[in-house]
From TrEMBL:
<dbReference type="GO" id="GO:0033320">
    <property type="term" value="P:UDP-D-xylose biosynthetic process"/>
</dbReference>
<dbReference type="InterPro" id="IPR044516">
    <property type="entry name" value="UXS-like"/>
</dbReference>
<keyword id="KW-0210">Decarboxylase</keyword>
<feature type="domain" description="NAD(P)-binding">
    <location>
        <begin position="5"/>
        <end position="301"/>
    </location>
</feature>
<keyword id="KW-0472">Membrane</keyword>
<keyword id="KW-1133">Transmembrane helix</keyword>
<dbReference type="InterPro" id="IPR036291">
    <property type="entry name" value="NAD(P)-bd_dom_sf"/>
</dbReference>
<comment type="similarity">
    <text>Belongs to the NAD(P)-dependent epimerase/dehydratase family. UDP-glucuronic acid decarboxylase subfamily.</text>
</comment>
<dbReference type="InterPro" id="IPR016040">
    <property type="entry name" value="NAD(P)-bd_dom"/>
</dbReference>
<keyword id="KW-0325">Glycoprotein</keyword>
<dbReference type="GO" id="GO:0042732">
    <property type="term" value="P:D-xylose metabolic process"/>
</dbReference>
<keyword id="KW-0735">Signal-anchor</keyword>
<dbReference type="Pfam" id="PF16363">
    <property type="entry name" value="GDP_Man_Dehyd"/>
</dbReference>
<protein>
    <recommendedName>
        <fullName>UDP-glucuronate decarboxylase</fullName>
        <ecNumber>4.1.1.35</ecNumber>
    </recommendedName>
</protein>
<keyword id="KW-0456">Lyase</keyword>
<keyword id="KW-0333">Golgi apparatus</keyword>
<keyword id="KW-0520">NAD</keyword>
Length: 330
């Protein structure tokens, strides 16, 4: 049986990866310090004989007894609200966390994949973004802590691959959505759905002409699974190229939720990317992968998930439950 370590396992993507690897018959070792994650995302897996959970901060030394075949490093604050609030932890998990886990992969002879991001392209000057584009990133702006942590993460991963011959994979994830996102973490899709469900107006930052491309989570997980099993060590974009302006997207959400909310406009945050669309030719060619779930369908599943949550969860704030305790240790 393959033994697979997944970091960030109690988060949105990590929890869906745990489901997939359990389904594929792996023994899954899930690791998370719960700084932005939520045990409710994986509580259904806790009784499973092939699932174990370690409450651990991966910026500290990581010890896992026994064999390991795969390491999926997905631990990192991922939403703008999170990484603006905890910038040092964000840099540490991208830098020290990745270094620790690469060391573990080397010691165990495990294959290693990191969750990189379209943010490595910054506010891109090339559209759509291909993997060959080096990006347009402001290292000292407010988003620099996330973008540069991810760029460093790619660099150290390639160094371990080149210098130590470690088997590594890099997935550049574009905006992904689905059940188990946090409603109030500042990402546009859950923010709109949360506002609609609470009967609030939908907030657009800027004039709404900026674009995003949203990928449904099951498509992303399939792409990651295929990339991990491939022999390609360089970055691969995984995302849905169907691009939409934020203004049109707000209208879609209002239609979906059947509410009569209005849209209100606020100032655009600094360095907010104006355009986002993955070029997925590489994934199509190398992995025979492309997204299957249309936005209509993915939004409907996601909306149903949030609509069926207990009402108090619509009001859970974005405060980090363990933030105080965690930050004292920094
Ligand atoms: N969701 C997206 O659209 C998207 C896009 C691009 C990249 N990514 C990347 O995918 C990964 C997962 O993102 P997500 O959307 O699931 O975010 P998330 O916040 O839901 O999950 C991240 C998880 O990592 C955990 N974590 C953070 N720091 C940790 C540490 N030091 N030690 C152990 N655990 C730690 C958090 O508690 C949380 O459970 C991140 O690396 C993110 O950068 C996500």
């Amino acid at each position: 049986m393959k033994r697979t370590l997944i970091t960030g396992a109690a988060g949105f993507l990590g929890s869906h990866l745990c489901d997939r690897f359990i389904k594929e018959g792996h023994h899954v070792i899930a690791m998370d310090n719960l700084i932005t994650g939520d045990m409710r995302n994986i509580e259904h897996l806790m009784p499973h004989p092939n699932f174990e959970f370690y409450h651990h901060d991966v910026t500290k030394f990581v010890h896992v007894p026994g064999e390991l075949h795969y390491i999926l490093h997905f631990a990192s604050p991922a939403s703008p609200i999170d990484y603006l609030k905890i910038p040092i932890q964000t840099l540490k998990v991208g830098a020290m966390g990745t270094h620790n886990l690469l060391g573990l992969a080397r010691a165990k002879g495990a294959r290693f994949i990191i969750a990189s991001t379209s943010e490595v392209y910054g506010d891109p000057l090339v559209h759509p973004q291909t993997e060959e584009y080096w990006g347009h990133v402001n290292p000292i702006g407010p988003r620099g802590c996330y973008d540069e942590a991810k760029r460093y993460q790619e660099a150290i991963t390639m160094a371990y691959h080149r210098y130590h011959g470690l088997e590594t994979r890099i997935v550049r994830i574009f905006n992904t959505y689905g059940p188990r996102m946090r409603l109030n973490d500042g990402r546009v899709l859950p923010a709109f759905i949360g506002q609609a469900l609470r009967g609030e107006d939908l907030t657009i930052f800027g004039d709404g002409s900026q674009t995003r491309s949203f990928c449904y989570v099951s498509d992303l997980v399939e792409g990651i699974y295929r990339l991990l099993l491939s022999d390609y060590p360089y970055p691969v974009n995984i995302g849905n190229p169907s691009e939409i302006t934020i203004k049109e997207f707000a209208e879609e959400i209002i239609k979906l939720t059947g509410t009569d909310q209005k849209v209100v406009y606020k100032d655009l945050p600094q360095d907010d990317p104006k355009q986002r669309q993955p070029d997925i030719s590489k994934a199509q060619e190398l992995l025979d992968w492309e997204p299957k779930v249309l936005r209509d369908e993915g939004l409907r599943i996601t909306y149903d998930y949030f609509k069926n949550l207990p009402e108090e969860r619509l009001y859970e704030d974005s405060e980090h439950r363990e933030f105080e305790a965690f930050s004292k240790g920094v």
